[in-house]
Amino acid sequence: MAENNYFSSADARSMAEVTQSPLQLQGVTSQWLLKVLPWVDVTAGVYQVNRTVYDEKKKEVIQTSSECNHDKPVITLPRTASFPEMTPAPRVYELSVVQTILGLQSRAVDLYNEPFNTSSTQIQLTIQALREKQENELINNPTFGLLASISDKQTIKSANNLPTPDALDRLISLRRNTQFLFAHPKTITAFGIECNKAGLIIQNIPLGESLVPSWRGIPILPCSKIPVKKGKSSILAMRTGEDNGGVVGLRPKTLPDQVEAGINLRFMGINEQSIISYLISNYFSVAVLLPNALGILKDVIVESTD
Fold first, then answer.
1. Which of 42, 147, 158, 202 has the fewest C-beta atoms lying within 10 Å of its C-beta?
2. Handedness of CA 216, 222, 223, 229 (dihedral sign)
3. Would you write out the chain's pLDDT as a tens digit for each of its 306 residues?
4. Rounded-to-integer distance, Cα 280 and Cα 262, Å
5. Do 290 and 246 contact (CB within 8 A), yes or no?
């Protein structure tokens, strides 16, 4: 019986050059907070927030005189008290840092660089991971993180513990010019459910090259770093920018061996096991310039705990 001798498609496939995708980092998010924050370049790693003293009971009002008393020979201009003095102990922010050491086998670096460069690929993946850690720190750091920087006057709760349109309106009303809302994706879904119950539609609006959900024309941006605990989470509302008395990100003006804003790469040598090591550092912080720049709708139910 004759054998079938032919070059099969499996044989052909085994000899073909495989087209590969770049290496993808699982768990990477949209990092909207890092994208929309205005970043201030900090000299010497320190940023001081200067505010005037404010007393609600002693509001200073600029006095005015009338354009109507032209018959009077002399008009005495009213006096206005000087503006309040600066707070005696302004808050000072020092840049925080997250670091890691990337180790690469020199043999792999020497031999396996097609179609993608091994060193640059691993460095970029490491930087992405550090950016994820940065966003988490901006939200959750107990010293300077946004959740730890919200004043009591800017903290509200929903009447029924749900992320309702009415509750979000109250949150927005606590500050002038609310520019962004941040929430965990589960919270955004729960808010959408509450809108559906009320017969309301969430509109998508353009932000950069993306379409994002919004409320009252304000983007609602997903941030998975906002915790969900026991089925509850929170929604942040903020105003941004130095000129706006808002929230600003902080980063160093320049760094030795800088590869991206706030990030540098330092060669650490090759050890006896032929491992090439790099120290990758990410320097940053975040500051709230005025208390009403940042508010929170706290502890809303976003998922069942049954």
1. 202
2. positive
3. 555 677 777 877 787 777 888 878 788 899 999 999 999 999 999 999 998 876 555 555 445 555 755 566 666 666 666 666 778 888 999 999 999 999 999 998 889 888 888 899 999 999 999 999 999 999 999 999 999 999 999 999 998 999 999 999 999 999 999 999 999 999 999 999 999 999 999 999 999 999 999 999 999 999 999 999 999 999 999 999 999 999 999 999 999 999 999 999 999 999 999 999 999 999 999 999 999 999 999 999 998 765
4. 11
5. yes
Q: Which amino acid is at 231?
A: G
> What are the structure tokens assigned to 268, written together?
């650490």
* Residues 6 or more apart in contact with residue 45 via CB below 8 angstroms: 94, 95, 252, 283
Residue pair 305/163 in contact by the 8 Å Cβ criterion: no
Q: How far is CA 133 from each of CA 16, 29, 281, rounded to the nearest angstrom?
A: 40, 11, 11
